[in-house]
Amino acid sequence: MDLYEAARQGNIEGIESAVEKGCDVNAAVKNGKPPLWFAVQSGHSDACKILIARGARVEGQGHSILELAVEGEHTEIVELLWPYCKVESQHRCLETAISLGFHGIADFLVGTQVFGYQHSQASDIELLMKDGFSRREIKAFQQWERFIFVRRSEKLNLHRIFFDYALLLATKADRNAGLRLVNLLLGGEKPLADANCMINIDKEIETPLTNAAEKGNLEILATLIERPNTRLTICGKYNWPAFLHLLASSDSIASEKGRAIARKLSKEGLPDSFLVDSKEARLETVFKNVLRLGDEALIKQVIDLVHGAAGIYILPLLIRANEAYGLRWILNDDIAHASKPPPILWVLLCNFFKRDPSSDALGTFIQVAKFLVEKAIWDRMILVCLNSRNFRFVKQFFYPLNEIPPREVAEETLAGFSQASTDQSLVREWAEKGFANAALWSAIRSGIWKTPAFESLLSCSNIDLDEPFPRKKSSETADANRLSPPLSGNSTSEKRKFPFRLPTGNSLRLPLEPGTPVLQDYQMQLMLLEQQNKRRLMMARNEQMEMTTEQGILAWTGGKSPLAWAATNRNVELMEALLRSSRVNVNSQDVQKRTPLVHAIAVGDRQTVETLLKFGDIDLNLRDNEGRTAIFHAAQGGDLHIIQLLTETQKVDFSIRDCNGENVQDIAVKKGRQDVVAALAT
After folding, report:
1. Which residues pair with 201 in a beta bridge?
2. CA atoms of 573 and 575, how far apart (whole Å)
3. In a domain? residue 331
4. In residue terms, where are the ANK repeats (predicted)?
5. Nearest alpha carbon to residue 243 among 201, 197, 303
6. How far apart are CA 554 and CA 404, in angstroms?
7. 3-state secondary structure 156-179
8. Cβ pair 395, 413 in contact under 8 A
9. Is the model's pLDDT at 445 over the cut of 80?
10. Which tens digit of pLDDT belongs to each residue from 27-42?
11. Which residues lie across from 205 on neighbouring strands?
12. Cα–Cα distance, 35 to 15 (Å, whole number)
């Protein structure tokens, strides 16, 4: 029998026979594991004894064989292996035994009295702390709590690092469940654990304070903060202090108690170097929570703490706090080399300047825009709008042409159109580059076409109301359109600085006059924009309308004109709004030469068909790419009511034949619809 198989089965005779034949008991052949590994894994203590007696090594076999025995709760094998193990490298075994609830094994290990490390060298303890522990599920805390509380009347001969580890687990147990264990470990004149301990958990440093903050355990946090020796600036996961971990939990700072604790945690300043870890997305969560739930004092504290370390994500906070200096810093330092900063940030910035057009920071923003336009990163229309102080109209240009901006931005575009229309060169360029077409579709998609501003948009002579979305690019406009999306990033990694200097002196401050309302609405605007984006994404997924291009036209529009799209979607009100403009062609044709009427017939909506037929200049005999007219599509659909609506107009030419040489009666006969044949004959 194979030695490995004999070990796995616990076959003593098989093991003896294989060894006598010269098999090496330490050869790691099968799956890279030696025979002893399989005997331990299967829990065969007698087989383990034979193998060890025959010279099987316990140490130096890769993953700890002792830990394997612990994980399998093979108590007898653990006791057998123990004398052959190096104690300093087996600290994980005790942690595993307690965390998994194998307290009989844990009692044996503690009883060896070697985990107190009384005789260990400092280098051994250093190695132990560097090696650290594995990350465990939260329920592991319950086993540590039970183990320690059951034996608290005894003197647990353990090194402090094990109590520190138990403290870490207790601080991140759900809903302050670890408070009792925290109080036990930190109570008395000589606490069992160190409130400021820093332990390596799967190559990440964790501390009790930052763990409690990350989990939002406010009761435990309050207990730790009240201890006079607790260092509030200590950093844990992500190299963050507890202050930021707490702010990343929206539930925590939604309560007054959470905000009060946050204020206490931030009372000691931290240099920026603590926060530079290149993962700004986590900081973005902090900023959003503070923007939505924090008061003015908390916002100021966050800005003071992370100023200079968070990149573009701090911009909404700076806007909310009305910090001209902060705005100048972020514009001068980070924007040019950022890779696609979210358009929402520029929208918020424009909202700020709309409220405070005299802000010193506006000059900086205009210079930034000028620089980005010169570098062909932004479209020049952004600069035109900023110079004319049209902060409504400019917002659309921060979004790519092949993307529908949020409803709020579409509303602002329509509201700013009347001011923009005074500059005909701007409006002409706006239309030529496709932004007018995008604005029209944005209003349609966002459902804001019932406003007077939408009618003024329809009256703009520079807009082709029969274009699909996005507009078909010509060779002359392709390059211009390519430049329209916001900040596509640099082709090199070199960080570029803007070629201007900031003004010096106290002019950077934004003094507020007595009675001037603080800018309260930015958190609401941010929420609305986020919600709108989420709704659009959900709609896109639900309706399979992903923003992918197909022959240069977005899939959800299907290459239709606005009128054809309204007909397809059975939106009679939108159709009527469009048709009130004499510039909308009721007979427009798409790339397949299908008219809005054909699209209405295709979806079988009688009210839509009736609405279109009210227009006297409608042509029922326009042929599509297959040579078929509206009556052909009606016959194929088989809706007798729609067929009747068409024939009653007395405008249908029944003599027309399609590209196959068939007339509409032939189509009806082939489909076997005698009722349709009769309706056509009538």
Report:
1. 133, 204
2. 5
3. yes
4. 31-63
5. 303
6. 10
7. CCCCHHHHHHHHHHHHCCHHHCCH
8. yes
9. yes
10. 887 577 899 999 999 9
11. 200
12. 9
Q: Reduced to 3 states, what is the DSSP secondary structure of residue 235? A: strand
Whether 544 and 568 share a structural domain: no
Asked if 131 and 95 count as a contact pair (C-beta separation under 8 A), the reply is no
What tokens were used for 562?
Answer: 């606005």
What are the residue ranges of helices labelled H in 433-508?
435-446, 452-458, 475-482
What backbone phi and psi angles, to 5 degrees, belong to 646?
A: -70, -45
372 with 352: CB under 8 angstroms? no
For residue 96, with 0-12 CB atoms within 10 Å meaning exposed, 13-18 middle and 19 or more buried, which class applies? Answer: buried
Residue 526, pLDDT > 60, answer no
User: What residues are paired with 204 via a beta bridge?
Assistant: 201
State pLDDT tens for residues 336-369.
445 456 677 778 778 878 877 877 778 877 877 8
* CA-based R_g, the chain, Å: 37
pLDDT at 226: 92
CATH of the domain at 588: 1.25.40.20
Spatial distance between the Cα atoms of 251 and 247, rounded to a whole number of angstroms: 9
| CA dist., res. 562 & res. 585, Å (int) | 10
- Domain finish residue from 70, 85, 100: 85
Range of the domain at 487: 316-554
Question: In angstroms, rounded to a whole number, what is the distance separating the alpha carbons of residues 462 and 476?
Answer: 17
| Centroid of chain to Cα 439 | 27
Give the three-class secondary structure for 200. strand
Tally DSSP H helices, then E strands, for the chain: 38, 4
